[in-house]
Specification:
Layout (H helix, E strand, L loop, with lengths): L8 E2 L9 H8 L3 E9 L6 E3 L3 E2 L5 H11 L3 E7 L6 H4 L3 H15 L4 E4 L8 H13 L10 E4 L9 H10 L9 E3 L2
Parallel strand pairs: 1-2, 2-5, 5-6, 6-7
Antiparallel strand pairs: 2-3, 3-4, 7-8
Helix pairs in contact: 4-5, 5-6
Amino acid sequence: MTLLGWAPYLMPEDNNPPDVAAVMDATGQKAFQLAFILAQDNSCSPAWGGTSSIDTDTTMPSVIQTVRGKGGDVSVSVGGYGGTKLGQVCGTPEATAAGYQKVITKYGLKAIDFDLEEPEYENTTAIHNEIGAARRAEVGRRGGPGARVGPGARAGLDDDRLAVEVQHRLAPPTTPGSCTAPA
């Protein structure tokens, strides 16, 4: 399993999750996707769930240390269905990327998942900022692609405008719903 393949979400600050070490021991699962990074207070500052600043976070480093100590690794999912995404409030792709770069650097990430969903589908500026940030992500240097943009709806990327935007913004061109940005 690669980090860019399937990995279950783990939300240590929400949902009263099970102990990650116990899950790893019981299942053999080695990869987890920590969720979700959103904009804090409608600013261009990344925060867990939009409320817990990464600057003062003490929960995730402990979880990451546990996973890596048992031979696994994590990626981080940015976006998700609820809350305000950085691409909605950061003024440019560069500013959006700088916010995500803080997350990548703080947690030593090799992969990051851009979970584009509502209301971004209707917001071309937000899509432009998120896709631009994915292109600039400084992850995955050790072994290939590190940023992935995928569909956020059951039907996939059924909006022609979004599919075209994704294909044009990411290189090399890929099929909608499975867009990987080289890092």
